[in-house]
Amino acid sequence: MLNHLSSLLPIAEVAQTTGKLGGGETDQLVWARQLQALSLVFHIPLVCFGIAFPTMVLFTEGLYLRTGDLHYKRLAKRWSKVIIIFFAVGVVTGTILTFEFGILWPNFMATFGDVFGLGFGLEGFAFFTEAIFVAIYVYGWDRLPKKVHFWSGVPMAVAGVIGATMILAVNGWMNDPKGFDVVNNQIVNINPWRALFNDFFWHELAHMYLAGYVVVGFLVASVYAVAWLRGDRSRYVRTAMIIPLTFAALVAPVQVIVGDWAAREVATDQPVKLAAMEGLGKTQEGAPFTIGGLYDKDTNQVEGGVAIPKMLSLLAFHDPNATVEGLDSVPADDRPGPVNTVRYSFHVMVGIGTLLALLGAWFVFAWWRKRSLPETKWFYRAVAVSGVLAVIALEAGWIVTEVGRQPWIAYNVMRVADAVTQADGISVLYGFGIVVYIGLAAMVAWLLRRLAKNAEHLKEDQPESEVSS
Prior knowledge:
Blueprint: H1 11-15, H2 29-67, H3 70-104, H4 106-139, H5 146-175, E1 181-183, E2 186-188, H6 192-196, H7 201-229, H8 235-269, H9 271-278, E3 284-285, E4 289-291, E5 294-296, E6 301-303, E7 306-308, H10 311-317, E8 323-324, H11 339-370, H12 377-403, E9 408-410, E10 414-415, H13 416-419, H14 426-453
Antiparallel strand pairs: 1-2, 3-8, 4-7, 5-6, 9-10
Helix pairs in contact: 2-3, 2-5, 2-7, 2-14, 3-4, 3-14, 4-5, 5-7, 7-8, 7-12, 8-9, 8-11, 9-11, 11-12
């Protein structure tokens, strides 16, 4: 397992997380990074559905059990079919990601597999539990007693959250490697629990958990907002829009607060990532926040932007005169890159997140005043595009997390170039991956369109026996 450790630096350097582990860069690095990025871009929205959608479906079924309103049953039942579609696709993409860790980054897995492997093991148990109860829940409609069916969905929701939690724990460890020592070039004193519950775990978990509700809430609501704009003003569509929109609207402002917490943790523990997020070239007191412009690596500063004095210091440390480390605090080879990719991804995430929070506030204010949705078409147009915007913000946030950690696969311990495979043929796998993901996307689109076409709105006087379809 540790046969790749011959390239470890002395214990004192690695134990203080200043060493650099690994073998050496290969020509496969660019292709490996692109393939891993492709898989993550496709898989991450599915994680959001695993986190948030079962809870929304159970909430809707709970409304049916409490009120007896068949609209809620039809809605929960139809949404449960969406759960199984996304779960099935998530199985494929998750399996691909599992193989990619071993194929693309063998030195990383061989060196640190014993440290964070517990997280993958627990995620596996959560996955099988989720699979069992997804099947029971979806196929248990009208076959199980009503309350038994409802409670069969609870393990499904819990397992989805646990599985995502373990993956986030591993990602947090990559940003904050803990739970091991190095003695005589060997990994020893492994503490897998310390590794999993690292300092980055908590804010990553909160940020992603809330992101799940923001993404799923606005994405589902956007589907019914489009139907509303096309003239379908039925109670079914109105209810189907209000429920996910309520979840998203309540969570979005909290996400802004958690985002501030996460950014301050990054400022403290990964200052170079923060510098890349803002394109801050030089360490300085009262650092400005620059809007627009492009970072120029030759001048090591943003050209053409509008700087707001001291704003970055205020945002990062809540002190307008605080010192913020710049990209010049480390050698050029240790800087994230491309900087403009990190910087604009961060701005996109923050900008869209702010707009979605304002949209949620608009909905909450209108509901609080009149107990109804806003009357203007601009509200429904905004909701209609909010789903796509939420997904873009999600992807941008993960670009900040992953690209901003470069050039490290384990922060300040092992470089990505030292973890990558020495084997050839990754470009072929990349091409194969594109074909697979295009096929999966087409299949999901076809299944969802078929499900939508088969949907018949529940009439006010429709008997329950007709809701079993």
